[in-house]
Write a structure and sequence with these properties.
The chain contains 14 helices and 16 strands. The protein has about 450 residues and is α/β, with parallel strands linked by helices. The longest helix has 23 residues.
């Protein structure tokens, strides 16, 4: 959806300055040194674009935080929220409410296997938090294994399960979390030469980790089906099936985190479909309603759900299954079906983004690897293609991060809002972006990569 003419940006710098001043006076931003940030004041958004008060329009290659899977301001979802607000704006979670039941039904119909019970949360971190609790209570075991290259949320358990540096400030080393290396051939910790070796060695490493930790102490293994913020590393063929087999052999719960990868992002309703694997618990959020109202949840297998048939589940949230959020989910899923958004994401990855990004890699020495599927792609930027040295050091800040900062600035100058993390840029636009809009984004990346090329050897 491209902004209609009557929704086009209208410059109003004074209004923008007032918005910015109020923000800096009162809003405390996440993951930020408050005195060092300069947030853009946003005037509006529609489809794959947003704009500021100075009249600058940006093609959003971040989908917000990889959640506006159907773009901004879809009229059918906005109308559904408005209608629900007029009919029943809120109600406590202990009651049966029609729109809550319908959202659960629609989600359960699309999850793999027998994941037919839905526990609603307000977002992805709470979904992970509750999935971990369910796994521990179901098995009676304390430990959960998670991968180093991962992100699972910022609440207490979720941040300890996270592998990236955002965990460090909150990691007490006492949360019952054990980390392992998941497969990533481009930067293989197993010295593998091909995907088959990477898969085999990663599975052996995981099983060795379980053996040394004690299988009877491990409640769950949690994996992002396709890791998101950590780098969009699609697992090699056979890996997730191998993890499933290991879990079955040791009575370990398999949790797949689809908060970012779910609801069409990879060209399937859930990324697990690509690998033919059914987890015991599946966490979701973000794309379930394109982020229009906060919503997440856990899809639960019949076996784990049965654990709590006669035993109360010790967890809950005041806004679990909030009617406005559920109305947005129902409308979003209906829109995705009617407009074939999942199929469009698959087509986008196969015919536009994938080929386009690989073509950029051929021209730009700063692109070490292109990886992804659907509307879920990453460019691994390097100083040296031969050594694969990252363009900036791991977790770089300040002057050390200057090459990536210059790349991001060049993207914005060309009307593209990029997703940048460490030495990577991710191409994660709305799943229903048009081919013309996607190509516009690729052209902006092409220009910005010339800046990154200046820092190669």
């Amino acid at each position: 959806m491209t902004p209609h003419a009557d929704h086009a940006p209208s410059p109003d710098p004074r209004a923008g300055a007032a918005v910015k001043a109020a923000d800096r006076a009162h809003v405390f931003h996440s993951w930020s040194a408050q005195g060092l940030i300069d947030p853009l004041a946003v005037a509006g958004a529609e489809g794959a674009y947003f704009w500021d008060y100075d009249g600058n329009r940006y093609l959003d290659f971040t989908s917000g935080l990889v959640y506006t899977n159907i773009g901004y301001q879809h009229p059918k979802v906005v109308a559904a929220i408005q209608e629900q607000a007029g009919r029943l704006a809120t109600f406590a979670p202990a009651f049966a409410v029609d729109v809550r039941s319908e959202a659960a039904r629609l989600i359960a119909e699309r999850t793999p296997g027998d994941l037919d019970k839905i526990f609603f949360t307000n977002g992805g971190a709470e979904a992970v938090e509750n999935a971990a609790r369910m796994a521990r209570l179901h098995t009676g075991r304390p430990k959960i294994l998670s991968a180093y290259r991962s992100y699972h949320g910022a609440t207490s358990t979720a941040i300890n399960l996270t592998g990236d540096p955002r965990r460090w400030a909150s990691d007490t080393a006492s949360a019952g979390v054990v980390r392992f290396w998941a497969p990533f051939l481009y930067r293989s910790p197993f010295y593998a030469e091909n995907e088959a070796q990477e898969c085999e060695r990663a599975l052996r490493h995981l099983e060795d980790t379980i053996a040394f930790e004690g299988p009877r102490t491990v409640a769950a293994i949690i994996l992002e089906t396709v890791p998101g913020t950590a780098g969009i590393m699609t697992p090699p063929p056979g890996y997730l099936a191998g993890v499933r087999e290991i879990c079955d052999r040791y009575g370990i719960v398999l949790v797949l985190d689809e908060v970012m990868a779910g609801f069409g992002r990879t060209g399937a309703w859930f990324a697990a479909e690509h690998f033919g694997v059914v987890p015991d618990l599946l966490t979701f959020a973000k794309g379930v309603n394109s982020g229009y109202v906060p919503l997440g949840g856990v899809a639960i297998s019949a076996e784990i759900a049965a654990t709590f048939d006669k035993r109360p589940y010790p967890g809950g949230l005041t806004y679990s299954g909030h009617p406005l959020a559920c109305a947005a989910a129902v409308a979003t899923i209906q829109v995705m079906e009617e407009e074939k958004v999942v199929e469009r994401a698959a087509h986008l990855g196969e015919h536009v983004l994938g080929p386009g990004l690989r073509e950029l890699a051929e021209r730009h020495p700063s692109v070490g690897e292109v990886r992804g599927l659907g509307a879920f792609w990453a460019l691994d930027l390097v100083r040296d293609r031969e050594t694969r040295e990252p363009l900036v050091p791991y977790n770089a800040t300040g002057e050390a991060n200057a090459p990536m900062a210059a790349f991001a600035a060049a993207c914005k100058k060309n009307g593209l809002w990029p997703f940048v993390n460490m030495n990577r840029t991710h191409a994660v636009p709305a799943c229903n972006i048009t081919e013309a809009e996607a190509k516009e984004g690729l052209a902006a990346l092409d220009a910005a990569l010339a800046v990154a090329d200046e820092h190669t050897v």
